[in-house]
Structures are given as C-alpha cells and as structure tokens.
Design goal:
This protein is of the alpha+beta class and about 475 residues long. The chain folds into two domains: about 260 residues, Zn peptidases (Aminopeptidase), CATH 3.40.630; about 210 residues, Alpha-Beta Plaits, CATH 3.30.70.360. The chain is built from twelve helices and 23 strands. Strands 9, 11, 12, 13, 14, 16, 17, 18 and 19 form a nine-stranded antiparallel β-sheet that branches. The longest helix is centred in the middle third of the chain and has 18 residues. The termini are far apart. The model has no long low-confidence stretch (mean pLDDT about 95).
C-alpha cells in the first residue's frame, strides 16, 4: 500500500512521505531518521550538517534569478507521536508506518500516521530535491524531539541560521495561517503508599475505559472529548462512595500531548458490599454514557470480576487518591482576549500510574500567557499537595506571541488570497509549535506557520487530507517564488 501512497498527487510530497514513514522515528529515538536525513542531503550534493543535539540543517543555494532574495528557513520536526490501539501489534522502534487510503484521506493501520509533522518534512524534501521549483537561498531545519520536550529547538545554537524569514510547516488546517502558539510545562505529581494485604473476603473487580477518540491535547482540548483517566477516576469514586473499596492498580493514558483514550484499574471490594458497589457503578456508567453520547459514541465502560489482588492501598489512601484525581483541573482553563475563539490556557491529565506502593500523575499545562500558565500550575499543586504528593515541573517552553504586522505574514496572506480566491484565517494556535523557542534564539527572524489539513493528530485516528496537501504544496511553492528581495 505504500506504493499506492507514493503515487498520489503531488507525487513528490507523498513519495518523500512514504520514504520517511518507512523509517522508525518515535520521539527521543530518532537515530534512524537522523541518519536518513543526513543521507538524503548528501545524496543531493547539498551542505548537510548535524548539530550536537541531533538537528539536521541542509542548505541549498537559490535557483537561477532568485539569488538576491532573502534567505528562508524551512522548518519541520522529524519525530512523531507513537500511539496505537491496544489491540494493534506494532513496534514503533523497528517498524515503518502501515498506511492506507480512505477516500480523500491517508490513514495508518491502528497507529498514529506521522503526518504531524511528516508532511512538512516531506514538502521540504521535495523543495530540496527539485531542479524546477523557483526559490530563494534556503536553510532546511529539521528538528528532533518536538513532541516530548522540544529539546531539539531548545538545543539549537544561536549562530546556526542565517535566514531572516522562517516558514514553519506544522499547522494542521489548510485555511489557517498561524502567527502564535501556546507555551507549555510538564507537571508531575508523585506519591508513595504502603501496600496492605487485601481483605480475605474481598473480591477483585477490573474496570476499563476505552473507545475514546483521544487527540491532540492542544488543538483538540476545546472539543470537550472524554479523558479516560478522569472518567475512570469518576467510576472508581462512585464505588468508593458506597463501599470501603481499595485500589490495587491503575494505568491510564500515555504521552502528555495526547488526550488519554484508554485506562483501567483493579479494585478490591468487600464481598458484603459487592452488589452495592456494582449498582453504584452501573448508575454512574449510565450517566457518563448519556453525557458523552454525541461526542464519544464509541465510549465503552466495562467492569468484570477478577482475581482478588494480594496487595492494595488501604481505604484511606484510596479515598485520598481518588479525591485528588477527581479534583484535578482538566480541559480549557481560559480563552484568549486577543483571539476570542482561541484557547489561552488548558491542562491535560495525561498519565496516571498506581501500583506497588507508587503513585504518579503527569499533566501537560499549556498557555500563550506565561502568568496564566503559572497560575494553572499553582491550581494543580493545590490539588496535589493536600494528598501529600511531591510536585515537579519540567520541559518548560515559551509561547510565540502573535505579530499581525509581520511582513512574511502579509506575503503569505496575499499569495493565499490570489491562489484560492478567499482570505485565510489568521490565528494563534493552542498547540505547541517550536516557533516560540526559535524566536528566543533568533529574535529578529520573521515567521509564520502553515500546513495541510490533518485531523486526529496524536491518536490512531490521525488522517491527512489528500486534496488539502495539494493545496498546501501549491501555496508553499508560490510563496517561495514571491519572497522579497534583500534590502
């Protein structure tokens, strides 16, 4: 099927995307794709460099007649989110993505597709490989680890790039020009407990949440989709309200930038409270399914008898943990005053692990306003600290403040309007782009972000529009032809 994908128009983009998707490239394990890009640049006879953190820079001289135009940095990230359905057997570290066609969409078989940001990478590869596309002097910057810390962009030296314009190709709606983005910070709470022997008369109950859509914890956070960790916590708390249940284990979610789709837990329930707990669970299940009937039609909540666990939390610690989880802020926290339809601040309760005496809860807090981001972190701490959990933050990165007077924004807006007969939307996004970090390194660089339409990023439902990719490719080529002259 990859051969079919490689022959979609525009062939140059989809062929490079197919070649890229044959290379394993999960975040923080990009060794193979780094080597792939080094070989690609060398095969074209272009200056190809790898910096100390693993970013790749490929320089290409201007095409004939474009030598006196401003130098443009084309930028995309090499890594991809590695998420799969539980039923899918797949190893992101050794396997290439298995793609297929679905009407106007390219999808993957039970995994993320990697169109985020593989289509941006593929488009840049197409520009670099072409002898026919008119373009100014180019610096192609391929960063690593965008999805789990942006360490590539953070580690970029301040004297590597010479371009005065940067085109980031990581926006996921083809009618949108992005001029700003949220910053983010990882918030992690850790606690310990002393496991105790389960009541000899207790019964085990395994509760599972699955079938949720998941999605990008920035771009999709406003949709009100179900969070598996919080829905499971709600189910467990319903049981705890009517019976002295104790928690043996819980495992939910995965990557911080993905809305959790699946979670499961094991409870010990006193035999004489079994029926009462199941009734409470069924009442809560019915309420949740009704609440999410429209937004999450495939949501499944199952409760099945299981072997009695040997060790659990005591009931007091179980209550403290469940109350803490239930109180955590999740979803949209504030909307932007500059762009009323834009989420300014949000939190995603992304990962919950409980078992063997350890508790860990990981969130990703985002905001385009640094003070609001700090306020939301304090709010999370106010939930964690009464439970006795230690809170740490890490991976902090800045937002990108909008500049609607940007000269390159004016160029891209004009080219879009002339090509497609309508004006693009000019927005700031709630996803985390590398532009804020790159702007810190290069304060004078003028930047804008655009790209093809990609839906369901960071989930196995990720899909890329074929017609939109044609539109994106046409815009990119046209913009490069109209880059201003050096002053």
């Amino acid at each position: 099927m990859s051969d079919v994908i490689a022959n979609i128009e525009p062939i140059t983009v989809w062929k490079h995307f197919s070649d890229l998707n044959a290379v394993p490239r999960p975040s923080k394990k990009e060794e193979r794709v780094i080597a792939f890009m080094m070989d690609f640049g060398a095969s074209l006879g272009l200056e190809t460099l790898k910096d100390p953190v693993g970013n790749i820079l490929i320089r290409k001289p201007a095409s004939h007649g474009m030598e006196n135009r401003k130098t443009v940095v084309l930028q995309a990230h090499l890594d991809m989110v590695h998420q799969k359905n539980n039923a899918t057997a797949f190893d992101f570290e050794v396997q290439g993505i298995q793609m297929f066609l679905d009407g106007d969409w390219v999808r993957a078989k039970g995994t993320t597709l990697g169109a985020d940001n593989g289509l941006g990478v593929a488009a840049i590869m197409g520009i670099l490989a072409s002898d026919e596309i008119a373009h100014p002097p180019l610096e192609a910057l391929f960063t690593i680890d965008e999805e789990t810390g942006m360490t590539g962009a953070k580690g970029l030296a301040d004297d590597v790039l010479t371009g005065s314009i940067l085109l980031n190709l990581d926006t996921e709606e083809d009618d949108t020009l992005c001029v700003g983005c949220a910053g983010g910070v990882d918030v992690t709470a850790r606690g310990t407990y002393t496991p105790v022997a389960a009541d000899g008369e207790a019964q085990g109950l395994h509760i599972r949440i699955n079938g949720l859509q998941g999605g990008h914890s920035g771009m999709d956070i406003h949709k009100g989709l179900g969070n598996a960790n919080l829905l499971l916590g709600r189910m467990l708390l319903a049981c705890r309200k009517v019976a002295p249940v104790s928690l043996a284990a819980m495992d939910g979610g995965g990557l911080r930038n993905a809305i959790p789709r699946e979670a499961h837990a094991l409870l010990a329930i006193p035999s004489d409270k079994w029926d009462m707990a199941l009734r409470a669970l069924e009442i809560e299940k019915s309420a949740v399914l009704e609440e999410y009937r429209e937004k999450e039609p495939d949501l499944r909540i199952t409760a099945e008898p299981a072997a009695r666990p040997e060790k659990t939390m005591d009931t007091r610690t179980t209550t403290s943990f469940l109350n803490c989880l239930y109180s955590l802020y999740n979803g949209v926290y504030a909307m932007s005053s500059e762009f009323p339809t834009l989420v300014e601040s949000s939190n995603n309760v992304a990962r919950v692990q409980v078992g063997e005496g350890r508790i860990e809860i990981g969130s990703l807090t985002r905001s385009s306003r640094e003070s609001a981001k700090a306020d939301l972190v304090r709010k999370l701490k106010a939930s964690f600290e009464p439970a006795g959990y230690q809170v740490t933050t890490g991976g902090d990165y800045p937002g990108w403040l909008p500049d609607t007077s940007s000269p390159i924004l004016a160029v891209v807006t004009k080219r879009y309007t002339e090509l497609f007969g309508e004006s693009p939307q000019i927005l700031a996004g709630h996803g985390g782009l590398e532009c804020g970090i790159l702007k810190n390194h290069y304060p004078e660089i003028d930047m804008v972000s655009f790209g093809p339409t990609i839906l369901g990023a960071h989930s196995p439902d990720e899909r890329a529009s074929i017609s939109s990719t044609r539109k994106f490719w046409a815009l990119l080529q046209d913009v490069l032809k109209h880059i201003p002259h050096e002053e």
